[in-house]
Amino acid sequence: MTTRNARLGYVLVITAAVLFGINGGLSRVAMGSGLSPESFTTVRVTGATLVFIAYAACFRRSALRRPKGTAMLLVIALGLVGVAALQLTYNVAIDRLPLGIALLIEYLAPVLVVLWVRFVRKEPVHGRMWLAVGLAVVGLAVVSRVWNGLTFDGLGVVMALLAAVSFATYFLLGEHNVGLDDPLRVILWAFVVATVVMNLVEPLWQMPRLAGSTSMLGRLEDHSVNPWLVIAVIVVLGTVVPFFLEMLALRHLPATIVTVIAMLEPVLANVLGWAWFRESLTPVQALGAAAVLAGIVLAQTSRRVETVLPQP
User: Fold this and answer.
1) Count of Cβ atoms closer than 10 Å to residue 300 Cβ
2) pLDDT for 168-225, tens place per residue?
3) What is the rounded CA–CA span in Å between residue 195 and residue 189?
């Protein structure tokens, strides 16, 4: 059985959040090259699957063996909901809503995780965790400036809510799966399932032909880049690495902690929006980011308290 290392878990999930945050800007560039959210999701998931398979074939062939029985059913659920549905609903949401609003709604996932753990699993949750989640959600609302308007695209809101459910499911199923199996095999086969699903929804061979170059948008709009290069970076550094790091983190930290720390992603995405896409970042938004960080610190302290409680 793998020994838990909380410090390593924090490093893994923070690194994943940073990579996911940067990936948001790159995804805008990729979809700006002419890809629909559905086509972009198919390309991203399929490419990531090929990288996972290649890595396993070279370094850990045991991960290529298909899980059996209940483990396979859980992996199928993870692939359907935690990978395919999460990517598709999120990409549709950011295509129809302001990025900050879409991320705010998606990152209601930590609330869903805590509620599931408390009321479905019947597990104790330290009181600080509730304050941590509350601070993080309020902070995200401030960062996203929800008071600027409450009239949003209906389908976009529904997709963002479904992304929140899918995101919570990813962490909860991932936490359960990595306790039973090799994290690489879990994530590899989950992506295989997602690839099959997305190629049924929007086949890879029907994607539009991409131009030889596309604008980097925002402050970099005068610069062009090959869209396939952007997609390659998204697949490796924006998908394979962060998804695998978060799956590894779930071996060292509970899902309640990982989901709260992962909320660094929308904060970073908003900073990126200001630095890259000329989106404003006011002092009030900076205060909201500080609230998110305070929530993360509280989540960490609640984790320390929980580790000294008697285990059933």
Assistant:
1) 17
2) 998 888 877 765 678 889 899 999 999 999 999 999 998 888 878 899 988 888 999 9
3) 10
Q: How far apart are CA 132 and CA 90, in angstroms?
A: 24
Positive or negative torsion for Cα 120, 125, 127, 130: negative
Q: Cα–Cα distance between 138 and 298 in angstroms, integer? A: 14
User: Would you state the torsion angle of the CA atoms of residues 35, 41, 43, 48, taken in this order, to the nearest 10 degrees?
Assistant: 150
CA nearest 142: which of 102, 94, 104? 104
Q: Would you call 224 helix, strand, or coil by DSSP?
A: strand
Q: Phi then psi for 263, rounded to 5 degrees?
A: -70, 0
In sequence order, the β-bridge partners of residue 224 are: 215
Element (H, E) at 60: none
For the record, the structure tokens of 115 come out as 């509620």
Q: What is the pTM of this model?
A: 0.84
Cβ atoms of 146 and 90 closer than 8 Å = no
Structure tokens at 117: 């753990």
Token reading at 140: 């995200």
Return the H-helix or E-strand segment holding 225.
strand 224-225
